């Protein structure tokens, strides 16, 4: 069986680059799912700005639904990698079988649990009378494709963790390219507006999901999808490990929701919708920062998990050194691009000079401290990749707590626009604590793994 990347024997630096770059590019392309929708929606004649605000309100809820894919995918993929490192492929297949069942069940529960309550949810999250109709239409159509969204994102983690980073990237590119083609057709040619944008996204996600399913049911996968062997203990372990990335995404979206609500409150009737539209553009740029960054740190978890399972601490530490370098390099490049290309970016969404100017200033504020954010992402995802959720979860929660507190404190003291400073405050305080914890605990964790008796390792402890 041909292996794209040998996680245990290939030279570490080359291995990191071969997996991290396709994973980063795949996530960069996946950003186009939401950004392309918003660009086209923002340019709908006469109602573009209001429609963009409406989609911005439901955007965090849509992403929160998608975070379930990370709960299961990022929770199960490190377990598969560790079992592969232990050469326990039967147990790896069992983990994937349980994860596939969980994705199917959650896709049904989410639709049934959310659809009846969409109006109070969207109203609570910042939709006004003017923007609610657009939010409702987009959200309803998108929710109908929940299974495709969960399968495309969640199962792709199991492709990447086996070393097939290029295949994972291809699935994302397929969906994103199709979305770019279909968006103008459904929005403008068929005159479906925001509903058309959601339908185009669902079709695109279905194509990506189909690609991933074909791969994982095929002969190329070292750990394919199988049926049977369902175990509540495995499901529980998956959810424990996946809770950190799930919580990161969920709280990120709660934060955006809170920001929209705060902007409506402090902006008042005159500036509320204006500032929510501005925040939609800003958060679109932040997706360009965080999703590819997560592609680097999350996509390379398989390297860490595999070598942790194989008791190769030297390879774990060496890989982390290169991964941190890539993460910091990426955030440094985005720091510069935010200032050089920010005006061009915001003009993709709106031709209103006042709105464009406000959005550019907010982007510069939000990206003030994104370079340390690169360190935060890798160290937290690194702990998750080797199964140390007891450290990754509180470290994630600490940064989010700083962010959440600043969202409410800053506008109360300095006005609505001050809310954008919550991002750099958390991007400094979060990494400071994470770096200290890493140096205190990482080598001790690896030493314990090296010293653990074989029977304890085979039990997954």
Automatic annotation (TrEMBL):
Stored InterPro entries: MATE_fam (IPR002528), MATE_MepA-like (IPR045070), MATE_MepA_subfamily (IPR051327), MdtK-like (IPR048279)
- Localization: Cell membrane
Q: Which residues cross the membrane?
A: 15-36, 51-74, 95-118, 138-160, 172-190, 196-217, 238-261, 281-310, 322-350, 428-446
Chief localization: membrane
What keywords tag this UniProt record? Antibiotic resistance, Cell membrane, Membrane, Transmembrane, Transmembrane helix, Transport
At the top level, the lineage of the source is Bacteria
Annotated membrane topology is: Multi-pass membrane protein
* Family assignment from sequence similarity: Belongs to the multi antimicrobial extrusion (MATE) (TC 2.A.66.1) family. MepA subfamily.
This chain belongs to which protein, by name? Multidrug export protein MepA
Ranked from the top, the taxonomy reads: Bacteria, Bacillati, Bacillota, Clostridia, Eubacteriales
């Amino acid at each position: 069986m041909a292996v794209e990347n040998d996680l245990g024997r290939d030279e570490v630096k080359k291995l990191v680059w071969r997996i991290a770059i396709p994973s980063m590019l795949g996530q960069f392309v996946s950003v186009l799912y939401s950004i392309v929708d918003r660009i086209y929606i923002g340019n709908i004649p006469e109602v573009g700005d209001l429609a963009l605000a409406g989609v911005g309100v439901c955007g965090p809820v849509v992403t929160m639904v998608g975070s379930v894919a990370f709960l299961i995918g990022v929770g199960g993929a490190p377990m598969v990698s560790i079992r592969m490192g232990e050469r326990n492929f039967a147990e790896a297949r069992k983990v994937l079988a349980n994860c596939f069942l969980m994705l199917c069940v959650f896709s049904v529960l989410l639709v049934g649990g959310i659809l009846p309550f969409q109006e109070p949810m969207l109203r609570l999250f910042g939709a006004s009378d003017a923007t609610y109709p657009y939010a409702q239409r987009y959200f309803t159509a998108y929710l109908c494709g929940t299974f495709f969204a969960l399968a495309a994102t969640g199962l792709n983690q199991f492709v990447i963790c086996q070393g097939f980073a290029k295949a994972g990237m291809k699935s994302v590119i397929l969906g994103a390219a199709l979305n770019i083609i279909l968006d103008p057709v459904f929005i403008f040619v068929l005159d479906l507006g925001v509903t058309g944008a959601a339908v185009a996204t669902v079709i695109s996600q279905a194509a990506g999901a189909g690609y991933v399913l074909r791969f994982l049911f095929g002969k190329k996968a070292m750990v394919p999808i199988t049926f049977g062997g369902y175990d509540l203990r495995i499901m529980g372990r998956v959810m424990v490990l996946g809770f950190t990335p799930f919580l990161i995404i969920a709280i990120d979206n709660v934060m955006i929701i809170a920001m929209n609500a705060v902007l409506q409150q402090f902006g008042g009737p005159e500036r509320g919708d204006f500032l929510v539209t501005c925040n939609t553009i800003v958060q679109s740029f932040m997706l360009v920062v965080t999703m590819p960054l997560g592609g680097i740190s999350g996509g390379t978890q398989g390297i860490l998990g595999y070598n942790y399972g194989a008791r190769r601490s030297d390879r774990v530490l060496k890989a982390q050194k290169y991964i941190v370098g890539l993460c910091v390099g990426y955030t440094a490049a985005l720091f510069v691009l935010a200032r050089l290309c920010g005006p061009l970016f915001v003009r993709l969404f709106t031709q209103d000079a006042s709105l464009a100017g406000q959005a550019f200033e907010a982007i510069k504020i939000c990206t003030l401290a994104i370079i340390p954010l690169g360190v935060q992402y890798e160290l937290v995802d690194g702990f998750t990749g080797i199964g140390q959720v007891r450290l990754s979860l509180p470290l994630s929660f600490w940064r989010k707590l700083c962010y959440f507190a600043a969202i409410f404190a800053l506008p109360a003291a300095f006005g609505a626009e001050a809310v954008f400073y919550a991002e750099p405050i958390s991007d400094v305080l979060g990494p400071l604590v994470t770096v200290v914890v890493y140096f205190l605990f990482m080598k001790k964790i690896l030493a314990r793994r090296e010293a653990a008796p074989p029977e304890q390792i085979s039990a997954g402890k």
